[in-house]
Design a protein that fits this description.
- 35% of the residues lie in helices and 23% in strands.
- The protein has 441 residues and is of the alpha/beta class.
- A hairpin with a 5-residue loop joins strand 13 and strand 14.
- The model has no long low-confidence stretch (mean pLDDT 94).
Amino acid sequence: MFTRFDVPSRVSSDCIKQIASSCETPYVLFCTSPSELVWVQQGPERLLQVAEQTGAAMVYSDRFISRGGVVREAPVIDCQPGSLRDDFDFGGVQMFRSSVLRDACSIMTEDRKYAGLYELRLIASRLGNLVHINEYLYTEVETDGRRTGERLFDYVNPRNRDVQIECEKVCTDHLKAVGAYLKPEFTEVNLDDGEFACEASVVIPCRNRVHTIGDAIRSALEQECSFPFNVIVVDDNSTDGTVEVIKSFNDPRLIYIAQDQGYHAIGGNWNTALRHPDCGRFALQLDSDDVYSGTDTVQKFVEAFRAQNCPMVIGTYRITDFDLNPLPPGVIDHSEWTDDNGRNNALRINGLGAPRGFWTPLVRKVGFPVTKYGEDYAVALRICREYRIGRIYDVMYNCRRWDGNSDAALSVDKENANNLYKDRLRTWEIQARIMLNSHNQ
């Protein structure tokens, strides 16, 4: 009923087409795991059974992971329209209906060196359903033992640049096929609209950051600008001494906001800062455990807003340890962001870079979702749907990786929840863009 082929996750379109032309069974099982699989009893038969009864274009399942002789559950998540990441985790097994494989190959007209399997599953998602079987059907040996915080930046590692460029082309073709592609046409803004207490505000949301909040505040207050600015620190009910550190600063430019006992998360804290009457014309992000790379970051941001006449600007950051020593992969500039295609490629990658700055009138209107993860990504997707996002390629920010980071070492369930949410954001954004394009026809 099926033929198994062992292929790497980065495989050429020519290889995929050769498999399609040689296979004579109703299904093709792609095994991307570099280690040998151990099936549970009737595991392959269960894949076939669900594929048959659902008519799926492709099926995949949860699995166990073995590491150092210890076996743990490693569930995956449902694939949805917004699951456009080329590193989406299907586990080590993907079983395609052979007829879908052949039809997809007839659509694959470009030669891909790395993105053959990625393009196959995007096309397959247009031809049928990709069905997730919530059952543990096999065990694979873990070959990447890094924590989530260490894997987090793989998709922007300069060593993977050729792969990313090819995957961007594949994703863009897919967006065109489903009607979600946006041309490089933008709504213009008048940045001088409205009156503000100052030109810029550095916004620092925090909760229980006693060891880092002082560094962040000093970094903000040490900025040298040709215009007035302030620093808005929103504390979300810290209990570890963070408040005492904030109050130890005696500077009239520092605005301290204590949240009430309700639920706010990072997004809610941002909304509180933006609504404050002293919030500046431009609101600039600084996480409570990071620091700006120099004393000119705020000045450069405002100059970029003015020069590029856009309501959002994204800078460049450097990955460091707690003591600001550089860590791999080093500088993250998101050079894949271009005026021509950046807002389409934004639907493929899991983040748009940092630090971020916003024109306050627009971001007040858009608002942050009240969540502790993905809130900035949601806002950026919404803004770039209509407006140009500016870029600064100078290093503006030191992103410090340490054990206290919220994403340093996530459980499988938490990592899945985070990925599911960002996929959901992309799904909603794709739906919005399809509607926008249909109204503009």
